[in-house]
Every structure is written in C-alpha cells, then in structure tokens.
Input
Amino acid sequence: MTLGEVLRRSADHLAAKGSETPRLDAELLVAHALGLTRIELYMQFDRPLAGDELAACRELISRRARREPVGYILGEWGFRRLILNVDARALIPRPETEVVVERCLVLLHGLEAPAVLDVGTGSGAIALALADEHPGARVTAIDLSPDALALARENAERAGLAVELVPHDLFSGLPGGPYDLVVSNPPYVEPDDIETLQPEVRDWEPRGALVGSGATAAVARGALAVLRPGGALVLETAENAAGEVAALLTELGYTDVRVTTDLAGRERVVEGRRR
Output
C-alpha cells in the first residue's frame, strides 16, 4: 500500500468515526508515525510502505478513531512560538487562548518589567508565551493540580524560560502581588454541560481543568486584591458567556471593560482594568 493510499484510507476512517478534521488528523499522525513532515508526505506520496511502517500508522490512527485528541497522541502541540509537551495532565492549548495572549501583550506594551499572574496555568501555555514574547515580564503561574504544575515545569525547561510555578487554589484568593496583569483561562464548563462536549474533550481531558462552577467569578474578585491600580485582568470565557462576564467585571468596578472575538469570530475574551 502506498503512502497516498494510507492517507486516503486513514482520513476516510477518521471521518466515519466522527473526526471534524479527518484529513489534517491523518496527515499529522501518519507523518509522526513515519518521522516525516507533512510536506514530505506528499513528496513520497507514491512510495509503498513497509510492514512496520503500516503497523505504526495503524496504531496511531486507531487511537484517533477512539477520539483520543491528536495532541495527546503526538505528545506535543504548537502554541504561538512554542512547542509544548501535552498529555492528560492538562488541557491541550486552544487557538482561542492565543487571542488571550495577544490581548495581554497589548495591555503590557510599554511596561519594561511587568509583574504577571497566570491563574490555572495547566500546561503553562499562557505564562510561557508571555515570558517568551515579553522578555522583561516577571511571570508567576499557579495551579491546584500538582500534575499540571509538573507538566508546566517540563515545558518551561523545554522552552528555556523562567516562570515561577506555585501550587495554589484560586478559591482561597490569589497570592502575592501587586501585579500589572492577571490572566486566566479558568475552568468554565458547568457540571450539567459536560455531556454536551465533544468526546475528545469530555472523555480525555482532565475534568478538573474543564468543570469549575464559579471559577471565573472567583478570579475576577480575587484579582481586585492583587492588581495594581490600573492593572488589567484578562479572562477566557465559555461560548456565549462573554456578555455575562463583562457585566460581572463592570459590577465589580472594573473600568475599560472590553470583549474580543476569537479567530472564529466568537466572543471569548473579556478584559478590564482595576480602578
């Protein structure tokens, strides 16, 4: 069987199993199994695969057919300028979270050495991206999960970036300060909504990082105690929740409250400044 045939059959199989991006998934997984880039797949499109190569491809495609996330199968995922280790200890970084980082960088512009707190850091994606793209930033990242903090530490070492990683429960208030910016992608799925999620999320990603009734409000309230006057809060929100979160920030006394859309045009990022 040629490489091209494997790609076609893999994509058809994944489509039948419910993947929303079957061709892309097939390309990523077959390339990984064969140690090739996606471009090299098409340079070798007509090459017959050896038995061990076919077995390696089948193993990864079978895992994806069970709806295991591609990032977990690959063991790494790109986020802005970084390649991060990813596994079941934390959520896989999403494209919408890159917009969160973009807003943070805009708000930090002109500050030489801003103090930043990332609440619920997970893989460390936000904290490390900010440390990477604003080299003067002094970034502290907190998470309740020891496993997530261990993963974030691995990613900090992989990226060669210095971020302070601290175990902390956001519901007990936020530590340290004062900060120029507090950022969070908190657990925002309500318990009753978990069954509505895609199997990749519902069945594979850590429940504690997904479900967190009241977490967004806890971050918004906690940030008031640790932000400098004029300091900013940036939050990622659930779909269709941005208006509610913006209203909460206004009610709490934040100024310059703003909602930003993600790359798909959905309102997913809310920010405000402490008076």
